[in-house]
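Researcher: Here's my situation. A collaborator sent me these components and asked whether they could plausibly form a single complex. I don't have experimental data yet, so a predicted model of the whole assembly would be a useful starting point for our discussion.
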Amino acid sequence: MKSATEASSQNLKPGAKQEGGYADRVHILYAKTLDFVSHAVIVAMVVGYVLYLTGLLPLSIPIDAIAGNWHLSAADMQATLHHPSGWSFVSAPGGVLHGDVISYMSVILLALATLFCLAVAVVVYLREKRPLFFTIALGQFLVLVIAASGIMAR
Amino acid sequence: MKHGISIVHRMLPALIVFGMVALLLTPVDALCAAAPASAGAPWWIWVVGLFVFSFILGIVAVLGGVGGGVLFVPIVSSFFPFHLDYVRGAGLLVALAGSLAAGPPLLRKGLADLKLGLPMALIGSVSSIAGAIVGLLLPAQQIQLMLGIVVLGVTVIMITSGRSGYPAVRKQDSLSRALQLSGVYYEEFSKHDVSWQAHRAPVSMLLFLVIGFIGGMFGLGAGFANVPVYNLLMGVPLKVSVATSGLVLSINGSAAAWVYIFNGAVLPLITVPSIAGMMIGSKIGAKLLPKVNTKTIRMTVIAILALSGIRSLLKGFGI
């Protein structure tokens, strides 16, 4: 391994450019998607949590019940309370109009954020006919789709 | 007035660090962390406490130059009554939220590089899923013990690893060439273009495999390990390493988070205040950064990390 402090002045090229000319199309679009999704996540989290704590919407599981069991492992609490996990809220008998379920959905949106960005990268690489990066991005996209499908969960 | 604000700016990080050290030195029993439930305290005290604690962690993490996730899991699992499963689930989502928020400007400036990030993330995300599955299968006490060992390992990495602003790479290996691991960015400090190229891709991929597994298993953001691999091993400039590490972290964290989500290990009651506190704290930490002695803070953060590692280790031994 090269010395950590070894600096190469050869790397530094004169001729400054304006910031912004260094990212190609895929990076710009990835950033744009990420910007939009991360702002949406923040809004969803705030709204969801306010609905959860204020009781403006009914709760599928009372907060006291969650707090009374949060010392239990996830498996044990799941067996006791059947709180939302994975995509279970989609088919929940009471529907999604519960404060805690909406707050949970905002967390799901956070976990999905990277998937949206990768979908954009896959499309851009395909349109730009860059087969190597299209393949890598598609592989990455599929790994996250498989993870989000719950197939890998025990 | 200005003088008063300046004193506050100087004192605040020291007070925060002092508070955290004091907290770490307090016996566990005194904090009811080992109590089976909420130890009689109303739930909202723990939730507000978690928000405040995450807020402080967010400030300290930025000032100390570490990711929030690596401090969050060992400390929260030691001092709050939540089971380790939910702390790890929240830790992953905290790290994920932080990297997503920081991502857009870094991508636009050409600092976070998809060519450099995606191949490593592809490997790391698969292993982080595996790590999360294994982590949820093992008993909490064993995980706590291993977490202590990992956190102490991270402490050693932080003490021993150097950083190189612009490492020199004379020749790329064939895999790095094939993956086009090179680029150029604008260095605002020196007003120059900086071109870079990476090498040692095969061995780095193996390391990202291991890092992903550890990150998924313990719910840690793995910036502490990603950055040295990019910077010191692959020869990528420090700024590109840090920015691309965030990109990798967002992908690996997302992959592992799904395992926790499907196993019921994500509770919004715990996760949302952690994310909110950490993000607000990070923003304040970034504003304080130019005004404080980061070297001292970094050394203190290393000490906090070491103490929380020892705490996890002791908890793992049931002490």
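Model: Some features of this prediction you could bring to your collaborator: The two ends of chain B are 49 Å apart (CA to CA). Chain B touches chain A through 93 residues (CB under 8 Å).
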